Amino acid sequence: MEQQPNQPSPENIMKIGTGFWASKILLTAVSFQLFTRLAEMKTMSAKDIKHLLGLNCTDRNVHDFLDALTAFGFLTRSGILDTATYSNTVDTDTFLDKNKPSYIGGLLEMLNNRLYGFWGNLGEGLLTGLPQNETKNSEDFFGLIYQDPEKLKEFTGAMSGIQMGNFMAFAQKFDFTKYKTLIDVGGSAGLLSVMVATYNPAMRCTTFDLPPVEPIASATIQKFGLTDRVNAASGNFFSVPIPHADVVVMGNILHDWDEQNKIVLMQKAYDALPADGAFIAIENIIDDERKQNVFGMMMSLNMLIETGTGFDYTFADFNRWAKIVGFKSTSLLQLTGPSSAAIAYK
Ligand SMILES: C[S@@+](CC[C@H](N)C(=O)[O-])C[C@H]1O[C@@H](n2cnc3c(N)ncnc32)[C@H](O)[C@@H]1O
Fold it and tell me: 89: which residues sit within 8 A by CB, 6+ positions away?
């Protein structure tokens, strides 16, 4: 029977309600490095996968796991059950094979290891307005995370994973012809600077972050062979002035902080720019009507979990802050998926 347009349907409710099942199947596959192993072996039977991953469940459990991944579009399968063989799809081969530079699984690893558990306390976060991560009893999120070398590595890997596509798009779409220098403030592993330098041979870039991050950024710059045009610097952006550059970028920085600190950081960016310089925030800018960019709104709740006071924002919000700081004009450049570059011109 065909469903009438206005008839109630439980479909969306059930899909979202069980969403964590789907999410956990993918995150578990990434944590087992299933896609990396399949990239090496090309094709494997369920029995081989079971053996390689050291799974002690029934064959039926293994088939359910692999066939669900197939139904989601993350594996391809020929044959069925005992005769089935599995391979990566183009997407998982490109983005979830750890041995490729296009790997974005760092974010998924962090989702599995940290945020899956912390999001279990979303209700408590909403009831109290307090962060729900390791910093429940501490103020300094980055200081605490960066004390642990494994967490530092995981966090910078996650940042690279979530922003890789945006940085590549930004490096190619933004018109750099008027500019010579760029500083990426809170640049994490240095990926944005490396992408801008790769696609714009006249640009010189500095990636700036807290001291524990500097060796990781230096290693990225070295890996891409860009030491002549990209350098890593460190400092606390609240206690030192931002070094001068024609373009100041902040990728997912403003969303970490409350409104007052957002404006402080935009003011510091303004002060670092020459006349006609540009400040750029690369974030999941929420649509002004707050109806479309659901990822931006979920990211904003993620900031409640991670920082307590941080939040994602609309372009209208960005415009208001840019005006307070004194920028002349603004524009919005769409990047990948839910992400954009909000640009303010001095
Ligand atoms: C959410 S991450 C964003 C990383 C990267 N820009 C991106 O778009 O993926 C925030 C970054 O800001 C850096 N950061 C936080 N507080 C800082 C401070 N006071 N001074 C300098 N960097 C800071 C962190 O180390 C981290 O790399």
Answer: 73, 74, 75, 76
